[in-house]
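Question (not urgent): is this output format expected?
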Amino acid sequence: MKADALIVGGGLSGAAAAICLARAGRSVHLLESQDGIHHKACGEFLSIEAQQHLQHIGLDLDVLCASQMRFMRLVTNGRIAEARLPFVARGLSRSRLDEALIDMAAKSGSYIERPVRALDLLPGGIRTNVGERQGRAILLATGKIGLRTLPKMVPENAHVGFKMHWRLPGAALARLEELIELTLFPDGYAGLQLVEGGIANLCLVLRRERLAALGGRWEDVLAMIAPLSPGLRAVADGEPLFARPVTIANLPYGRIHASDDAEDIYRVGDQAAMTASLTGDGMAIALRSGWLAAQSILAGQPAPIYHERLRAMVGPQIRRGMVLQRLAEKHWLSGAAVGVLRACPALLRWMVKVTRLPEAKADATLRSHRQL
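Got this back:
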């Protein structure tokens, strides 16, 4: 039986869209490639916009034991600037958050099929490793991974991402409470913060050429960053919680999908748009795209109209974020900037504010199906 919406991918954007559509009475078939709980390369930083979307669909971050962050520390070239964030951020592992959203999608009436690996795009459907699946509306939420029939997104000298969870010694753990530490270095940066259960998440990105120059191994990267900041020095004494880091290559930062009039696929999450991870708004944009795709489908708007609306909504944030990330990768400039920010912490708070998404306003259709 053909579902009203076939969603490929059960991450933030796919699950959020499934929840909104199912609660509005649409039949939803969600395909997820993983069989159960799994980790993803992600900073696991929930900005105020991401929190608002999660609150809108009824997800309680306190129940999930998300950490709180009220302060930011920016470190580069031995210099440190600290400031209070303009909002209380939250930290939550993607493994816990994604599973909570998939569970909410199922309880909202979505049919969840897993593990299913999507292979090719077909007219009105998807070919998978277990057969063809059909949907009146198709939402592609496969993250940075495309399908065989779609063009690859591989920028020149693209970034490579790493994520590792750590159990830190007591004193180091206490120093990281309510704090996110961002350490800038040539061609990349590292973010360190707490998620649930007192676990520290270290997420970093660096240019592919820089990684090759270091030797190409995780151990080489760790050796390079360990002396750079107070938090990263503490990580050296911690216990890694994965056998090896979660990695992802060829990150297409700055990309916003341009839909043509003939395209009938609603791309959400990183398939639709990807901001600089330094802004901390990647998860917010993923949730926003899922919400907007659901709103567009409920309003009978075709995919090209949805993509135009999404571009207008997230484009300014992504452009500002990319400027910020390019400047941060210039070590001489970032070092001077930290000196200025140290003298005037209000500038750091302003930088956080200007890379936020605009407020999302639900139309009457979605408001009528809101469940808190």
